[in-house]
Write a structure and sequence with these properties.
By secondary structure, the chain is of the alpha/beta class. The chain has 10 helices and 15 strands. Strands 6-7-15-12-13-14 form a 6-stranded mixed β-sheet, with helices on both faces. A 4-stranded parallel β-sheet has the order 10-9-8-11, sandwiched between helices. A 3-stranded antiparallel β-sheet has the order 2-1-3. Helix 6 packs across helix 7. The longest helix has 17 residues. The protein starts with a strand and ends in a 12-residue tail after the last strand. The structure holds pyridoxal-5'-phosphate and zinc ion.
């Protein structure tokens, strides 16, 4: 018997952890990995080798790594002074393919490989596609990556260089998902969707474990995350809940969720039709119908975080500010979190005597340069 299964996030029904099972057969809810408390789980050491994190693999030898995780945390003296708040950044662009996605991908590809999957389909705004392309190659799998034709050329080139088949779709991010889903159905392939696969969030959890060590057990009171589908946002929360369950931390941070005004189904709490989606420079969070929306909203409620959406001009302004004042060149999607932070501080949603942690989710080198 396995030490884990899938559990529906809506009706809590259990499901066998099968690579083809991405939604609950009873209520269509999204799924997450549930470990069997009566069994000793397989675990990796995270946070400088100090913490055991359960993983959905039957042995450690199944874990395929390209060296993801263990990213540095840096203080931001100039921006902290500007906003009169102690702000820290965790440099997720230092992951092997230049974004945080590698944390989730490493776990998802390892789990699929362990179940003898040899050909997969993925859809992405670019970063997850590049990440899946790299790790699929490492695992000896064939990957079909769907991405919008409008994605930055660097990301499309990156998807191709690792050897996957790129399907560039002339449509929105949501239409790219639809095209991938159709392809999966027609070819009977495994849909390795980083948005739906419960394995992906098990990988992004490493971020949450690492910050326990990065901050010497004193996790900042606020974490501000750019959210499209919420894979990093939900992974951090799941990790911190596991640490709380183990009584390693007493309190949980406020988890703030930042979106672009042009596509903000979570911040606005409404469904976005295709015609309402306006273009945004923050391509990584341009998701009109995130399947895990209610999970993100539940974390917002539980943690006391705020969902906030930001203008295009403020995203570009912060992308330039981070480069010019802190020497950190991130992509616009990552800069959106800082645009959100400025507003949350001004609106007193974040107190100036509290610390703030922001993941710099992707490298500026992967996107178009601001003018
Ligand atoms: C750089 C960057 N930041 C943040 C996100 C948002 O991640 P998620 O959709 O898992 O919320 C993405 C997603 O593509 C991204 O590429
Ligand atoms: Zn269900």
């Amino acid at each position: 018997m396995s030490h884990f299964e899938f559990k529906c996030t809506k009706c809590f029904k259990s499901h066998k952890a099968d690579p083809q099972t991405l939604k609950c057969g009873t209520c269509s809810g999204t799924l997450s990995v549930k470990y069997d408390d009566s069994k000793r789980p397989v675990a990796i050491m995270v946070g400088g080798g100090t913490l055991e994190m359960p993983i959905p693999l039957s042995s450690l030898s199944e874990y395929l790594s390209l060296g993801e995780g263990s990213t540095p945390v840096v203080s931001m003296p100039n921006i902290s002074a500007m906003l009169e708040t102690a702000i820290y950044a965790k440099l997720e662009f230092m992951n092997p393919t230049g974004s945080f996605k590698d944390r989730g991908t490493a776990m998802m590809i390892s789990a699929l490989k362990s179940k003898n999957v040899s050909e997969i389909v993925e859809d992405s705004s670019g970063n997850a596609g590049a990440s899946v392309s790299a790790y699929a190659t490492r695992a000896g799998m064939k990957a079909h990556i769907f991405a919008p034709l409008s994605a930055p050329q660097t990301k499309l080139n990156q998807i191709k260089i690792y050897g996957s088949v790129l399907h560039a779709i002339d449509g929105s991010r949501d239409e790219t998902t639809e095209a991938a889903e159709k392809f999966v159905e027609n070819k009977s392939l495994v849909y390795a969707s980083h948005n739906l696969s419960p394995f992906f969030v098990e990988g992004t959890k490493t971020f949450g474990y690492e910050i326990f060590n990065d901050f010497d057990r004193e996790i900042p009171e606020n974490i501000v995350v750019p959210v499209g589908n919420g894979s990093l946002y939900l992974g951090i929360w799941k990790a911190l809940e596991e640490l709380k369950e183990k009584r390693l931390i007493k309190t949980l941070p406020k988890m703030h969720c930042i979106q672009a005004e042009n596509v903000n189904p979570i911040a606005s709490n409404k469904a976005w039709s295709k015609s309402e989606i306006k273009p945004t420079v923050a391509g990584g969070i341009a998701v009109g119908s995130p399947p895990r929306k209610s999970e993100v909203q539940s974390v917002l409620r539980q943690s006391g975080g705020t969902a906030y959406s930001v203008t295009e001009a403020s995203i570009v302004k912060w992308q330039i500010k981070l480069a010019k004042h802190e020497g950190l060149f991130c992509e616009p999607t990552s800069a959106a979190a800082f645009a959100g932070l400025e507003n949350l501080i001004h609106k007193n949603q974040i107190n100036k005597n509290e610390r703030v942690l922001i993941p710099i989710t992707g490298s500026g080198l992967k996107d178009v340069f601001p003018e």
